[in-house]
Amino acid sequence: MAEQKQEAEINLNKLSFEEALNRLDETVQALESGGLSLSEATSLFEEGMKLARYSSEMLASAELRITRIQTAYGEQMRMLEEQPDDIEEGGC
Q1: How far apart are CA 8 and CA 17, in angstroms?
Q2: pTM of the entire predicted model
Q3: Which pairs from 76-83 meet CB under 8 Å and 24+ separation?
Q4: Which pLDDT score is estimated for 81?
């Protein structure tokens, strides 16, 4: 059983953000539709929580990456904007 759980987590890590969100949506719909046994509902709830955490982590990672890119390009742009002033001052 531990191997199955580990395998499920590995499969979760192979999902794209969009796939994880779609799967989470399907899980929520299944829970909301009712008609599930307590065991099925509990398993689906657990899977949904894992999907939500995984999606949240992927989103946070993307946001951090975007912030780093903006910072790096912002510094480059600032340096480029400062260069013409330096050239003008040196040429006068």
Answers
A1: 16
A2: 0.67
A3: none
A4: 77
